[in-house]
Amino acid sequence: MKIEEQFTIGVPIDRFYREINDIGEIGYCIAGVKKVEVVSELESKWTVEAKAGFMARTFNLDGRITERREPYYFAFAGKGQDVDVNGHLELEAVNGSATNCRAVIEAEVTGPFSTIVDLMARGPQQQLIRQTITNLRERLERIAAGETPVRPEPVAPRERVGVRTLLHTWLRRIFKRP
C-alpha cells in the first residue's frame, strides 16, 4: 500500500528539518505510535498499533534513517514481523516562513492475513495520516511560537466487544429496534 500526502506547515524549513530528526520526540506525532526508543543516531525501535475496523494489531518495528539531505530530504525504513515500511519526506521552503512537505510512505503487510488487512486498512490509513499531519503541525507551530511542545495524547483503546455483540447491535440498528 502506497500513501502520498502533501501539506504545508507554518515553520521555516531549517526548523522543520531539525525537529523531524529528533526521532524520540517527533515519533509520537505519528498516529498509532505507542512507544519510540532511540537506539542510535540512525536506529530506533517502535511500537505501533494499527487498527482496521474491529481488528487491531500491535507491531514492533526496527526503524532506521536511510538517507538525509539537509534540509530538503529525509528517508526512513522500518521492518517488523509481518510488515515492512519505507518512506521519505521531501521539503521545500515557502516564503522563508513555511515549509511544504511531500510525504511518501509504502507499507507492505505479509503473513496469513495480509490480503484482508490491506483491504480493510485503506480507509483508516487516510484518517491516521490526517491525524499525524495535525499532530505534526501543532507540535511544530508551538515550537515556532516559543511554546513548549507537548506529546499528543494516544487515543484511548476502545473496549473490546465480541463478534456476537457486534452482530446483534448491527442487526438492531438495521431493524431499528431499541
Explained architecture:
This protein has 178 residues and is of the alpha+beta class. It has a single domain (2-174), classed as Alpha-D-Glucose-1,6-Bisphosphate, Chain A, domain 4, CATH 3.30.530.20. The protein contains four helices and seven strands, in the order βααββββββαα. It has helices at residues 13-20, 23-26, 114-144, 163-174, and strands spanning 2-9, 33-38, 43-52, 55-69, 73-80, 83-94, 98-109. Strands 1-7-6-5-4-3-2 form a seven-stranded antiparallel β-sheet. Strand 2 (33-38) and strand 3 (43-52) form a beta hairpin. The longest helix is centred in the C-terminal third of the chain and has 31 residues, at 114-144. It is globular, with a radius of gyration of 18 Å.
